[in-house]
Every structure is written in structure tokens, then in C-alpha cells.
Write a structure and sequence with these properties.
Strand content: 5-15%
Oligomer: single chain
Strand order of the largest sheet: 8-9-10-11-12
Helix content: 40-55%
Number of helices: 23
Number of strands: 12
Largest sheet: 5 strands, mixed
Structural class: alpha+beta
Length: about 475
């Protein structure tokens, strides 16, 4: 499709919550045909799905039903597995505060980009952040009517610089100066696309209005038209309402636009699963600062960027030194670990002391090392003998090799050794769990990660870590009551 495509299934907050709660039961699980049927059955119980006949579910509809939460990054799909995003957990923690709930959803909208993984049929040449453009226009010009938005914004393909933005503004001004007949004549040049855009836009504006991000305005003088698309049997009734930003979050949107502009390049990645994890697990520091009523603790404010730094430094071989420092900081976020970086050649990059709490006897100290491998390509091998040579000196129990990607032979290099491979993406995502726990003033122990490592020596433990992340991210059903 040559225009924007925005889902148009849910208008209210509650259907989102119902869908996400149902999906949460299957977080981290591979979605099979049997599980799709189970999802549809639960959706039917909530009156969110009605089968086409009384006995058969159409399993492709299961993906269709989660399309909208996926579009807005409330959940994401990775390797045919569904996962709840960190913003969804944050939203539940602030579910009773209308303003904070609006700010959290607004932060998620800043991450929505085209191309969008939930909309595979869209024109791949559309590369922009749709809601950043909307927010910037509303900051600059206070309001926009639905006809103008449907006609001009939906057909944008890029927004790279100020000249493109100025061109958009000039087109809107020229259109607004036309009378009703001139506007209709202009629209009829591409009436089929306009009607699609209008219907989609109406759903989108209504949803954002219900989340207190936009305010829908109308008056007795609002233009009302009946336009006929050649693809529809009946004419579409057009009511030219307009929207403006909710004053409660206008300042917050200005703060976000100062850092995350509509001119930013869209995020690209080699694998869709990595892009999904990167976008949906990112939490804007501005969002956390704004949600917290008082200033963030010094430890949290210093470490809030660790997840993002783990990704950016791991994939740039020239930033190897920074990568080692960030890994040290990452392990120090755990309440029962002390980590330090070792600078000397032929030494481990990071040395860690894990103080295991034991209820019935003295706490037990475990030493382990972390070896940081930043690389633009896949790591093509591991010198396991060099790592094992550190064992006698530091009496370590195991060693973690942390890197973004590796070739299969790298796993053979650590076979039958006390060495594990860990993806830097998995480490980044587990640190985000620590951030969420800090908001609840909970300690984050290394003990469950330690158990994963000990039970999976000489293996890639990334998948096991993601299973643990799904467990730690699991949402209690009482929250939704």
C-alpha cells in the first residue's frame, strides 16, 4: 500500500488490556496452531472474537487480533514467540494515574515507525515516525482536522529535514484556503485512498482521545460530507472534526521531541526479531524521569542507559573499551555482585564476585569472569584455553563470553569447558528488568541467572535467559482486575 496503514480494531483501553493479558499467558512460548485456537477461545469468552461459524476458529485471526497492540509495541513477536514489552509492564504499574498512563503510551508512540513489523504489506519506501510528525505539527499549529490529516499526512513517505516539513505545511495552508467544493474536487482525484485513510484516521484519533493524548473537538459548523469510493457500496459520511493535544501532556511531548525528532533515521536491523526486541524493550529515560514523582535515585539515573549502551558498543569493534566498562556496570546493578574491570593484557576483562545468600549456613562467595567481545561481524572463534588459564589465578567457577553474534564453531570451542556464551542483547534485556524492579524499590538478585549458568555450562545460555526474562516479566492477573 502506498499510504500509511494504521490498525483500526480497538477504540477503548479495556480491549487492549484483555488481549495483552491473554497473550501474557503465552509469553515466550512458540505459537502453534493449538495455541492460536486457545487464544481465540479466550478472546471469544471476553466477547472480543466471534467465529464465522459455531464450531471452527480461523487461526490466522489470532495474529489479526494482536495486530494493533503489536503495532504500538505493547507486545512484540520474536522467532514466532510473543512477548510483553517493558512499556506494558510500566503502564500497569501506573494504571490508575491517567496522566502518567497517557505519558507512557505517548512514549510508545515515539517508537512507532514505518516500515512497521506489524504491517508487512505497507510500501517499504515509507520511512518515517508518523506520530512524531503529528505531535510536532500540533505543537507548532495547535490543531489539525481529520480531513487534512487523512489527505496529506497519510501519503507522506519521508520526513528527513525542515524543507520537507515546510512543504507539508504549505500544502496544508493552501488546502485550508479552499472552499468546500474545491476541497471535495481536490480529494476526488484520489478518493479511494482518501476514504481508507479517513476511516483509519478516525479510529486512531478516537483511541488516542480515549488515552487522553489527544482531545477531539467539534462544533456546529463542522463540515459534513458524503463521499463515494468506487470500492464501497455506500457513500462514506465525513465529519470534519479536529484534534489538539491534551494540555496535561503537552510539556512532556515537547521534552520528548527535543531528543527524539521527526527527522531521526528509522531503526533498521538485519533480523526482524532483533529489531522487535530493540524497539519494544527500549524505555526512554525521559519517560522514566517524568513518571517518577521525585527525582530518580542516583544509582538508577547513572545506570539507566546501560541497556542501550550494551547494544551500541557491542556491535562496534572500535568501542571495545567502552563495552568492557558497560559490562562491568551491568553486573554491578545486581544487589549481590561486585564487579571490577581488569585493564591488563592476558587477564580477564571483568572479574565478578557473587555473594550467594544461604538461609541455613554462611553466605557462599562465587567468583566468575566476563570476557567482552565487541564485533561488527560474527565472532568467529573463542580461545577457551586462554580463558581457562585464568581459573587457577582467580579461582573462578565459570566464565561468560558476551558478544552480539557468533558463528556455530564458537560453541564447539567451549565444548566441555566451564564457559558459557551470552548474547549482549539478552544481557541488555535482563538489565531492563532491573530498571523495572528499581521503580518498585525491589532488589535484583543474580541467583536465578546463576542457576541458569550452572545448569547450562559450555552452552549458549541466551535462550534460557529469555525464558527467565519472560518469567520475571509475567504480569499478575490481579493487576488487571
Amino acid at each position: 500500500m502506498s499510504n500509511w496503514t494504521i490498525p483500526q480494531h480497538c477504540l477503548q483501553i479495556q480491549p487492549f488490556k484483555e488481549v495483552l493479558w491473554i497473550v501474557n499467558d503465552y509469553s515466550g512460548v512458540t505459537i502453534t496452531e493449538e495455541i492460536k485456537n486457545d487464544i481465540l477461545g479466550k478472546l471469544e469468552e471476553c466477547w472480543l472474537y466471534k467465529p464465522r461459524n459455531n464450531w471452527k476458529y480461523w487461526t490466522w485471526t489470532a495474529w489479526h487480533k494482536i495486530d494493533e497492540p503489536h503495532f504500538y509495541w505493547w507486545l512484540y513477536v520474536s522467532s514466532w514467540k510473543l512477548h510483553i514489552s517493558n512499556y506494558w509492564i510500566l503502564l500497569l504499574d501506573n494504571r490508575d494515574n491517567t496522566k502518567k498512563r497517557a505519558e507512557i503510551f505517548c512514549s510508545m508512540l515515539f517508537s512507532v515507525q514505518f516500515p512497521n513489523l506489524a504491517k508487512a504489506k505497507m510500501d517499504p519506501n515509507i520511512k518515517l515516525y508518523p506520530f512524531r510528525i503529528l505531535f510536532q505539527y500540533l505543537i507548532d499549529y495547535k490543531k489539525i482536522d481529520i480531513v487534512t490529516f487523512s489527505q496529506f499526512f497519510y501519503r507522506l513517505k519521508t520526513m528527513k529535514n525542515e524543507s520537507e516539513y515546510k512543504k507539508l505545511v504549505d500544502e496544508i495552508k493552501e488546502f485550508s484556503n479552499k472552499n468546500k467544493e474545491e476541497k471535495i474536487k481536490y480529494i476526488y482525484y484520489n478518493i479511494e485512498d482518501f476514504i481508507k485513510n479517513y476511516v483509519s484516521c478516525k479510529y486512531c484519533f478516537t483511541l488516542l482521545n480515549n488515552f487522553w493524548i489527544l482531545k477531539i473537538k467539534e462544533n456546529m459548523n463542522s463540515e459534513r460530507w458524503k463521499l463515494k469510493s468506487p470500492k464501497r457500496k455506500s457513500p462514506t459520511h465525513i465529519k470534519n472534526i479536529y484534534v489538539e493535544l491534551n494540555s496535561d501532556i503537552e510539556e512532556y511531548i515537547k521534552i520528548m521531541l527535543n531528543k527524539y525528532t521527526m527527522y531521526d533515521e528509522i531503526k533498521t536491523w538485519n533480523l526482524k526479531s532483533e529489531l522487535s526486541r530493540k524497539i519494544s524493550n527500549f524505555i526512554a529515560p525521559e519517560s522514566l524521569y517524568n513518571i517518577k514523582e521525585s527525582s530518580l535515585s542516583s544509582s538508577l539515573s547513572k545506570r539507566i542507559n546501560i541497556p542501550e549502551m550494551l547494544i551500541t558498543t557491542a556491535t562496534n569493534s572500535e568501542r571495545w573499551s567502552e563495552f568492557e566498562e558497560v559490562i562491568t556496570d551491568a553486573f554491578n546493578v545486581f544487589s549481590d555482585i561486585k564487579a571490577e574491570r581488569i585493564w591488563w593484557p592476558s587477564e580477564p576483562d571483568v572479574l565478578c564476585e557473587y555473594n550467594e545468600y544461604c538461609e541455613y549456613y554462611w553466605n557462599h562467595k562465587h567468583m566468575f569472569t566476563a570476557d567482552a567481545k565487541s564485533t561488527n561481524k560474527k565472532l568467529n572463534g573463542i580461545n577457551s584455553w586462554r580463558l581457562i588459564s585464568h581459573k587457577e589465578k582467580y579461582w573462578w567457577e565459570f566464565s561468560l563470553v558476551i558478544t552480539p553474534h557468533w558463528v556455530p564453531s564458537a560453541e564447539i570451542d567451549i565444548h566441555w569447558t566451564p564457559i558459557c556464551l551470552l548474547s549482549s542483547y539478552a544481557l541488555s534485556d535482563i538489565i531492563k528488568i532491573w530498571i523495572m524492579k528499581q521503580f518498585k524499590k525491589e532488589d535484583f538478585s543474580f541467583n536465578e541467572i546463576y542457576d541458569v549458568i550452572i545448569n547450562n555450562l559450555w552452552c549458549d545460555i541466551s535462550d534460557e535467559i529469555y525464558k527467565l526474562i519472560d518469567k520475571l516479566s509475567w504480569v499478575n492477573q490481579s493487576i488487571l482486575a
